Structure to design on (808 residues):
DNA sequence: CGCTAACCGAGACGGTACGTCAAGTCTTAAC
DNA sequence: GTTAAGACTTGACGTACCGTCTCGGTTAGCG
C-alpha cells in the first residue's frame, strides 16, 4: 500500500530520485488533518494543499485515501512493538492489551483505526485488505493462546476464535463508540476476567 | 429521525395528505440498495431514483443518509423484541445474545448497522446520535446485570461497563470485520464464558 | 389577467365567499417585495409567505409572476390618467412625457415595468401579452400625432413609428439602464427637441 | 469575465494546457441555445450537455450565465468595429447607427443583448457590470458629439446625455419590444431627424 | 557531459452527488 | 366552492472532490 518498505532494488536505470520531504509533509498533513477534522473530512485534495504538494504527487505514491491513512498510521507507530513473551498467558495478554489500549491515548492512531474500520464498511475492495491486516493481528494473539494451550494454562478444546474476540472486541467497541475511556491500567483486570472465563469449569 | 411512529394526532389544519406508498418505496429502495451495493455506495439520489420518488421528497422526510438508513433498519425490525426476563442472568443474556447474533443473518440489518457505525466515525454530529442509541441498548443489558446483582448471581463490585462490553464487543467486532460467522447457536457458549469470567474467584 | 375589475355579479351558486383582504395583502406584499428585493428575487412562494396566504391562493387568482406584477402595477396606478388634449402637439406630448417620466419617481411602478420588460425577454409567451400592452400605449401617442398631422403641426409623410419611438425609446432606455435620472422637468425640453426634429426641413 | 482576449503571456508555471475546443464548443452551444430557446430557457447545465463538456468546466471559465452570454456575444462580434470618423457628425452617427441596427439582423447578438438587459433588471450585481458596459458605448457616441461640438455642427450647450439617449433609446426600444424591424437602411433618416432636433432654433 | 527517465508543480478535464430552492400541480380539510 | 395547508414532481442551481490527464521544468545516474 505504501511504497516505503518495498522491493529495495527497483530496476531503475536513471531518473530523478524521490523527494523524501514531500513524503513526510504528506504524512504529517494527513495525521494533522485526521486529528483536526476526522477521517470523514479528510480529502486528498486537502492533504495536498496542506502539504504544499501537487495532488498528482499524492496519487503517485498512495492510490487511495485509506492507503494514505494506513501509511500515516504506520508512520506514527514507528517502532514496532515486539510480540510479548513473559512466560505466562496472563502476562502476555496483559502486555498486549495494555499496548492496544494505549492507542486510545494517541489521537492520530485512534482516528486512523476508526477511520479505516469505517472505510472497510464503505468500500468492499478495501475491506479485503483491512481484513487481512486484522488477521495478522489476530494471529499474533492466536500464537500467545497456542503457547498457553501447550503449557496447559487453558483447557484443550478452548474456542480460540471466541477467545481472540474477547480480547479485540471490547477494545474496538470502546474505540469506535467512545462510551468509556480506553485505559491501559484496565488491561490487567480485563485480561483476568477473560482468562477466568476460559478456565475449565469442573 | 423518522416520522413514522410519532404523535398520532399532529395538529393539522389542512394540506395534502402524506403519501404512504412513497414512504414505503423509499425505505424498500434503501434496504435493497444497502444490500446490493453497501452503505458507501448508497446515495440519496440513487434511492430517489430507485423508489421513483423526487429527491426533495426524500429530503423532506429524512434529513440525511444515516437518518434514512436508521429508519430502514427500524422498518426491517418491525416487531420490537421484548426485554428478556427468564429468571436467571444466563437465560436473559443468552436470549439477548441470540437475538443480537441473529442480526448477522439479516443482510439489511447487518449492512445498516455497520454502515451506521461507519457513519459515526465520519460525521461527529451523527456520532452523538449514534452513541445515544448505543446507550439505550447498553442500558438494557445494564438492567439485566443489575437484576442479577440483586439476585447475587454476580458479585457486588463487578465492573458492569466491562461486563456490558464483553457482550457487545465481540458481537460488533464480528459484524464489522466478518472474520467469523455470527451464529445464534454460539450465544449460549459465549454467554457462559463471560459469566464464568465474572464470578468471584475465591 | 387580474380578477379585480370584472363582472360585478358572477353567477355564483354557493360556496365560501372570496376573501378580499387576501387579495389586497397579496398585491401589497408583491409591491413591497418588488421594491425591497427587485423583480428577480420576487417569488410566488415569497409573496404567499409575506401575505400570510397559501401559495395555491396566489395561483388561483394570478396564473404567473408577471400577471401578478402587472396587477400590482395597475393597483398602484389606481386612477387612470386621461389622454391629454391641450390643443397643441407640444402641450399634449409634454403632458404625456411628464406623466411618463414621473414613473421613475415611483419605485413600485418603475420596478414593475423594468421587471416586466425583463420577463418579456425571458418568456416568449408573456412577450406577446407585453407587446400588446405596449401597443395600447403607442396607440395613444399615435392618436396625439394623428391629430397634430390634421392640424398640420407636423408634416405629412412623417414617420409616425419613429416619432413614437423618439418619445418612448429614451424613456425606457433611462428607466432600464439608470444612467441618468428621469425627471418630469426635462419632459418639455425633450419634447421640444423631438418636435423640432420632425419639422419639414426646407 | 471572459478569458479569451487577455494577457497573451499569462505567467503560467505549469498545469495542463487549456482545451480550446471545449471553449469553442461551449460558446457555440450557448449561441445555439440562445437562438433556439431564448435567454430565459438558457441554463448552464443545458449548455454543458449540448457542448459535451462537464458542468464544472463551464463554471471554471464563466462564473455566471450573463458572463457566458457576454462572451458568446463578443465571440460573435469577432472583429471590432472601429470608431467612425467621416468628418461630419451626420456621417459618423449614420455609420454608427447602421452598425447598431445591424444587430437586429443577427439573432445571436440580438438575443444576447436583450437577455443581458433582462438580466440587469433581475440581478443588481450584474446591473453594475452591464451599466459599465453601456457607459463605454455611450462614451463612444459622446466623443462623436464632442468632436461635432468643436466643429460647431451642434450648438454649444446641447444636452449631450439626451442626445445620446436619442441615438440609443429608439434602438434598444425596438430591439426589446420588437414592434417594428430594425433596418440599417433607416439609420440615415433617423439620424437626420435627431440632428435636426439638436440644431439651434433661431 | 549529455541523455534519459522519473520526479514534481500546477491545474484543466469529465464526472458524480451534494443539499437547496422555487416552480407549478394536486389532494385534503375547514369554513 | 373558496380558502388554507402542505405534499408532491421536476429541474436547475452552484459547490466540492473525485481520479485522470497533460503540461513545463527539474534532478538524478548511466553510458
Amino acid at each position: 500500500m505504501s511504497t516505503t518498505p518495498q522491493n529495495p532494488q527497483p530496476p531503475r536505470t536513471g531518473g530523478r530520485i524521490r523527494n523524501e520531504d514531500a513524503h513526510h509533509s504528506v504524512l504529517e498533513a494527513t495525521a494533522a488533518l485526521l486529528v483536526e477534522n476526522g477521517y470523514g473530512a479528510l480529502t486528498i485534495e486537502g492533504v495536498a494543499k496542506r502539504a504544499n504538494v501537487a495532488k498528482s504527487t499524492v496519487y503517485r505514491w498512495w492510490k487511495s485515501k485509506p492507503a494514505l491513512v494506513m501509511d500515516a498510521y504506520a508512520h506514527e507507530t514507528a517502532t514496532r512493538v515486539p510480540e510479548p513473551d513473559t512466560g505466562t498467558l496472563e502476562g502476555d495478554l496483559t502486555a498486549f492489551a495494555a499496548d492496544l489500549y494505549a492507542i486510545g491515548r494517541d489521537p492520530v492512531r485512534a482516528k486512523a483505526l476508526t477511520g479505516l474500520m469505517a472505510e472497510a464498511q464503505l468500500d468492499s475492495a478495501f475491506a479485503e485488505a483491512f481484513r487481512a491486516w486484522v488477521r495478522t493481528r489476530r494471529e499474533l494473539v492466536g500464537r500467545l493462546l497456542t503457547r498457553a494451550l501447550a503449557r496447559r494454562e487453558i483447557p484443550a478444546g478452548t474456542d480460540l476464535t471466541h477467545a481472540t474476540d474477547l480480547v479485540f472486541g471490547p477494545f474496538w467497541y470502546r474505540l469506535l463508540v467512545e462510551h468509556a475511556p480506553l485505559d491501559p491500567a484496565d488491561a490487567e483486570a480485563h485480561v483476568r476476567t477473560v482468562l477466568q472465563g476460559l478456565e475449565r469449569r469442573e
